[in-house]
Design brief:
By secondary structure, the chain is mainly alpha-helical. It contains five helices and two strands. It has a two-stranded antiparallel sheet with strand order 1-2. A hairpin with a 4-residue loop joins β1 and β2. It is globular and about 45 Å long.
Length: 167
């Protein structure tokens, strides 16, 4: 089981890492961000869009945010780079606010949702679903980090231990 402090730490880490990746990606051209670089979702733009979509989907399940209209995998969730950058920052702020308001009881019990990807109703411990959301973010951000460094961009280090202490 995880506790609210853990969730708050990962929300802050998520926000900082996304800001770093978006800043580094903003230094590339639109063509570079959309270039097929052989990653799972092909490009930086598509991978970041998938992350925005997936985080929005998880927040619709965990915090009653609006469910995204775009179908899985959400690669064209937000086509415009500036709008995607803004939407990412707004969502990260919502995740931090949500995490900051959690009590231990909010992480207990089961989360039940309907998943198109998994073909029906899914039930998992709520703490496990929260952990998955942050693990999923870390996984795909690592892919984007590698794509950015291949272009010569310099996002921040991704080690959690290097994160500034929380206030």
């Amino acid at each position: 089981m995880i506790d609210p402090g853990y969730v708050h730490t990962l929300a802050a880490y998520n926000k900082g890492q996304n800001a770093s990746l978006f800043a580094a990606a903003s230094g590339l051209t639109e063509a570079q961000r959309r270039e097929d670089r052989g990653a799972f979702f092909k490009s930086i733009h598509a991978t970041l869009n998938h992350l925005l979509w997936a985080d929005s989907m998880w927040m619709s399940r965990l915090a009653d945010d609006p469910r995204p209209d775009t179908p899985f995998p959400g690669l064209d969730h937000v086509a415009n780079w500036e709008r995607m950058t803004q939407a990412r920052a707004e969502l990260d702020d919502r995740v931090v606010t949500w995490a900051g308001g959690l009590a231990a009881a909010d992480l207990s019990g089961d989360l039940v949702w309907r998943s198109g990807l998994m073909g029906g109703e899914v039930r998992r411990p709520r703490w496990f679903a929260v952990t998955h959301m942050f693990n999923h973010q870390t996984h795909h951000r690592g892919q984007v980090h590698a794509l950015l460094t291949a272009f010569g961009a310099r996002p921040l280090d991704t080690d959690l231990i290097l994160m500034p202490p929380l206030a």
